[in-house]
Amino acid sequence: MAFSFPGLRQNKELCDKVSGLNRKQHVSNEQRLKMQKCLIVSKVTRYEYEKHSHDNIEDSELEKILRKRGSDYDFMITSHREQKAFEENVAKSFKDMGIQVEMASRLTYNEELINWCDVVVPCGGDGTFLLAASRVRDANKPVIGFNSAPHKSVGRLCLPTWCSNDVKGALQALKEGRFTWMRRSRIRTTITSEPKLLDTITPVDLHTLHYCRYPPVSNPDDSPEPSKSPNFNTEESNSTLASKVLPFLALNEVFIGESVTSRVSLLRLQIDNGQWTHTKSSGLCVTTGTGSTSWHYSINCLRTHSVLELMKILGEDFNINMDTSLEKAREVTERYNQKLMFPADSEYLAYSVREYITFEEWPAPRGLRVRDRAAAVRVRSHCTDAGLVVDGSVSFPFNDGTEALLEIHPEDSLMTVHMDDTLPY
Q1: What pTM value is reported for the model?
Q2: 330 vs 10, 251, 311, 322, CA distance in Å?
């Protein structure tokens, strides 16, 4: 199963404006960061991915294969070594402070290690941060990321650039409490289907295209419920259907759609407690406040040239007197796009129906708004080979008859920190 996703196209300046709305502005003694045991989650480099994909063949053979297909092998090796050197520096800095350190990768990251540590420290970019956060279900266990390559990527979920350049200084600042706590809401997904189908749900890691193991999930209401699977909690909704909470929480977004992107996705949607609406589209993207600056933003943002064309049409064809300069168009565009984003700790979701196929009826269009905010979104699949994808990383099968409830619960929030972009000393 393969999906095509746009990269994390996030505007750092706009992100800072939004994230600044939900920071706690002081740190009491009770809020001090506990760092006796640290789990470092490492980034899977391109070299490691290729090595794994080719059954760990000798480097000399791997080099021949990659050079033959036109890959820049030298750059790949250099980037790999830089990444590992950065991770080793972070680990050494922790150890020099008397902190116990364990290392994990995408393939070894598990619940046992998460339970062992006081803090999870992803070293990579936003993708590594999302991976690390997806399996941390304890709302009081901090996830604090270092951007291993600030010269290549913004890493907006990670600590600021100066922390990457001065790891020891960053750790000292964390130890002394020179930061502000942040809560980031995450999406809980509950799947409803026939019990026999729920028992066979196996997620696929989209980075390795291998089936991945996942931790057991406690009932969100802490009430005893019968379970048909050792990996999920199952509760009977009636004699023929059962429900499970997926073991991954989405920090950015959940995407639902056909695996083949050129195929139409047939989905029925219920926004909050409204009516069910049948949709034909290229998929559904449901986002958090954190994700509102990412894929959601890329799907819905306007471009200056489009706004300028609309302003000219209003002026020339509808005799509306307005400033149709490029500068004014940029101002309108920025103001519109800023409204797409909302705070990371918001209790609301935002949904976007991608390339919605609709037949407008004036004055009342059929269907629903192609994007809006909601407290909960229900989705019923009528697809043939679809997936429900958490943060562009893990895909669950989501075919005809399967239903998903997407919602936010305060107890699912992620604890992280914010530090100033400039040195705190």
Answers
A1: 0.84
A2: 18, 30, 11, 14
